[in-house]
Each structure stands twice: as C-alpha cells, then as structure tokens.
Design a protein that fits this description.
The protein is mostly helical and 62 residues long. It is built from 3 helices and no strands. The longest helix has 19 residues.
C-alpha cells in the first residue's frame, strides 16, 4: 500500500509540474486521467501492478 501511495503522489507531482509548465493542457490531462481510471478497471490492472512492483524492487536494489 505504501508503494501505491508514493507512486500516486509522485505521478501527481509530475502532472502538476507539467500543467504549471504548460507542457500539457487541462484537456489532455483529463483524458489521460480517465484512461488510467478505465485501465485500472480492466483485467490488465494486476499485470500493471506486478510490473510496477518489480520496477520498484529493481530500483530499491540499486
């Protein structure tokens, strides 16, 4: 759970910086957010979570 929370916070900060720097528009940010929410409801969500956990484990071992 702590990994998910920190990943969400990190991605939220990245989105905030991109919006403030005007690299992406609000419409594009909303479209990407909605895509993420719908992707989380599919059968692909466990594979994505496993991949993120593996990446976190790899980065922690460095």
């Amino acid at each position: 759970m702590a990994l998910s929370l920190s990943a969400a916070v990190l991605l939220g900060i990245i989105v905030f910086v991109l919006l403030k720097g005007r690299y992406v528009s609000v419409g594009a940010m909303l479209a990407c957010s909605l895509f993420g929410f719908t992707l989380a409801a599919t059968g692909l969500a466990p594979a994505i979570n496993t991949g993120l956990a593996s990446l976190a484990g790899l980065l922690a071992s460095l």
